[in-house]
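ugh ok fine here u go
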Amino acid sequence: MLSHTVIETIVRAALEEDLGATGFDATSEFVIPAQAQGQALLRARQSGVLAGLIPALTAFSLIDGDMDMTIHAQDGDTLEAGQAIATIEGPARALLTAERTALNLLTHMSGIASLTARYVEEIKGTGATICDTRKTLPGLRTLQKYAVRMGGGSNHRFGLGDAILIKDNHIALAGGSIGEALDRAGLLAGHTLKIEIEVDTLEQLEDVLEHGGADIVMLDNMDVKTLVKAVKLVDGRMTTEASGGVSLDTVRAIAETGVDYISAGSLTHSAPALDIGLDIEG
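structure:
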């Protein structure tokens, strides 16, 4: 679940960005009577998976605490076009002041959840798990990774301190040796901190297997035939993760190679927004 503190911090920053230096919505202030009340309905305009409802509703409550909200759907629900998500009633100016921030969060997070759900469906029955990466928008990682979970995916590292992930640049700057990089990592890592290492070739994979010291191997940008050979070489001795070149067109074939995890940056950096609108009623 998302922390209320995290949600409020992110939403407050987004509202402040939208309100700008003046701190108010000039259009709503000058056009709508101060005492006017309104009722609005958040409604899906296309099918998909809902995520981000609480952050969206928080935008309204932070603008005006007198909002009355009725929730019709929950995060993780599959939405149909036209389906009601939530009804918000309260001061009319506040409804429109919060509208864009609420919709930006809701459509973006629901887009991530919807795309993730498509990936999950593509690999159904293979035993592989879809996960995200750290390719997230600065400041929004917590919300984006939450949206991946709502779509049925899994989370990779949240931050640099969550695990040791040795990539090609780490190996190069550590002296150019896979063994030396693994030894350095293993020297200081406790038993609770997992070590993952990236390999691009079967020769590098053989070096890792011969040396030992890794819990997970990332099989980076390997074609399907090479992935099959890599999984056979590993033979269950460590967790396997395929990364690079992952799309909806390729993910099924990748999953059928027998890898344990498939990480896809596109889940967070390329998900199209889910079309959700705010309709004023009455």
